[in-house]
Amino acid sequence: MILAATALSLPGRLAGVTAALNPGEVTAIVGPNGAGKSTLLAALAGLIAPAGGTATLGGTPLTALPPRERARAIGYLPQTPEIAWDVTVATLVALGRLPWQGGPLHRAHATPAEDAAAIGAALAAMDLTALAHRPLSRLSGGECARALAARVLAGQPRWLLADEPLANLDLAHAAALIARLRDQARAGTGVVLVLHDLAAAMNRADRVLLLDHGQLVADGPPEQVLTPERIAQVWQVTAHWLGEPGNRALAVG
Amino acid sequence: MTRLNFTLLALLALAVPLSLLAGKVWIDPLHPAIPNAGVILLELRLPRAALALVIGAGLGAAGAAMQGYLRNPLADPGLFGIAPAAALGAVLSFWTGLAASPWALPAFALIGAGGAMALLGLVAGRAGLAMLFTLAGMMLASLAGALMSLAISLAPTPFAQSEIVTWLMGALTDRGWAEVWLAAPLTLAGLIVLRAAGPGLDALVLGEGAARSLGLDPRRLQWLLIAGVGLTVGSGVAVAGIVGFVGLVVPHLVRPFTDRRPSRLIVPSALAGALLVLVADCLCRIAPTVSELRLGIALSLVGAPFFLMLLLRMRSTAALGGGLA
């Protein structure tokens, strides 16, 4: 199912962004601060109703999907964690199963055994099994970021949208998370990441959307989008790429 | 059933019979030496105990739901303005002198609570955000409070004035089965609604944006909370006046024994609230004072220092816990 933005507009934030994203790919959204990256991601997650244009999943406007159905299809990891209570890692990750679980007002879409299996797999994928019963207040920033990512993985969404997922991770865990996300994509999940680290986008994304002032400036494979000329034009810095394809580093200045 | 709920139920099973025997006149269950023991038990103490359970359960559950909704351990069921509006209704029944007829006071209070719920409902339709919704509730609370003060200051007779002030302190004195039959079904309905709000409150643990990405419908959650808090707190105020403190403290006492998911807090908070009000009411009854101590005052007198102590202890153990409550 294709996740698509058609002439997506929000006054002052997005100006007519059109892009059809394919499942099975890692798409990176990059751009300077205030370019509209997070807004585009939230609109693609169905969390912001656009003023103009539509965001659609498999042709259906996200605003027309029942919220729980949308939640089972699209997982969303916000940029800043806002956890209200000092829950344990396992409890936090289990929250990712909410759209699947029944309740007084909803019927269940998964059995408790399926829920438990998904939670266990998400904990294992994020290397958190040993920390499952630890409260969040006793985790490091990186461990907390991994727990939040595991929460999204536990929902087993077909689309996985993450806003700056690498921001609080150390080198090893950032590499592990992005490898895990690539595995997800290879298994057919659509992965969309807002990234500040252009080298991560260059090396790990299949496709890059470059935003500037709410407009889609370029869209395509990373080697074609993140050229030194475009980086100079959008970020106003001179930079050039070092290393081999798939293992690039950006030298600024 | 969880171990926590089982423990609380066991404590309740112990406390209820004891509360029936306790009072200015102690009843020895084996040798009831008092001639009217049966009447005292069935017509005075049993309804009073039942009412304490009903009100405590409603306040405890409403407090747990409010703290979950506002993602804040300082939230209290009074914040939405439903309790003050219900109290305003009751005050107006005194003011008009209609309180003398048996059903007028609770009816006025319920109308007040219903009016507050309807106003909140109007706001809920417009704003999905908890912040705007809560501010609207707080404005409602302060408006109801101001009107209450106005009604007291302009009371037609000093007698009405003193009646209003005494009633506002909250008590279970001289309540009978009529009050139980009024409050129990409404509170039970409210508890069911609050339980249904549980999954939505759980999603809010992650913040509003993430909660919506998990399929939360913020408007529906607001409706559930208005109905649940309105039914429990509104019916509680209608029969017992303002009983503060329970809704704030009980979720705190219960939370460490749960996994801290708001949905898991609602039932144990209801049970613990019932236990707390029952015990507090018994203590009011047996306290050696000339006229009976008011429940609302007693709860705050005993509860506030205890709560303060708890907070100081929490502060020292949670010093490393960052901003997490």
Characterization of this structure:
Chain A has helices at residues 37-44, 67-73, 89-94, 112-125, 141-154, 171-186, 198-204, 222-225, 228-235, and strands spanning 3-10, 14-21, 26-30, 52-57, 60-61, 74-77, 159-163, 190-194, 207-212, 215-220, 239-244, 247-252. Chain A starts with a strand and ends with a strand. The mean pLDDT of chain A is 93. Chain A has a 6-stranded mixed β-sheet, with helices on both faces. Chain A has a 4-stranded antiparallel β-sheet with strand order 2-1-4-5, with helices on one face. A two-stranded antiparallel ribbon of chain A has the order 11-12. Chain A has one domain (3-252): 3-Layer(aba) Sandwich (Rossmann fold). Chain A has 9 helices and 12 strands. With 253 residues, chain A is of the alpha/beta class. With 325 residues, chain B is mainly alpha-helical. Chain B has one domain: ABC transporter involved in vitamin B12 uptake, BtuC (Orthogonal Bundle), CATH 1.10.3470.10. Chain B is 73% helix and 0% strand. Chain B has 13 helices and no strands. In chain B, α2 packs across α11 (246-254), α3 (82-95) packs parallel to α10 (218-240) and α4 (104-126) runs antiparallel to α5 (130-153). Chain A binds chain B through residues 42, 45-47, 66-72, 74-78, 81-88, 91-92, 95-96, 98-99, 101, 103-106, 135-138, 151, 155, and chain B through 68, 71-72, 192, 195-196, 198-199, 202-210, 212-217, 255, 259-262, 318, 320-322, 324-325.
- Give a quick account of the main beta sheet of chain B: strands, pairing sense, barrel closure: none
Structural category of chain B is: mainly alpha
Number of helices of chain B: 13
Q: Going by CATH, what is the homologous superfamily of chain B?
A: ABC transporter involved in vitamin B12 uptake, BtuC
Distance between the termini of chain B: 26 Å
Q: What share of residues of chain A is helical?
A: 25-40%
How many structural domains can be distinguished in the coordinates of chain A?
Answer: 1
Structural class by secondary-structure content of chain A:
alpha/beta
And the CATH topology of chain A? Rossmann fold
Overall pLDDT score of chain B:
86
Mean pLDDT of chain A: 93
Count of DSSP H/I helices of chain A: 9
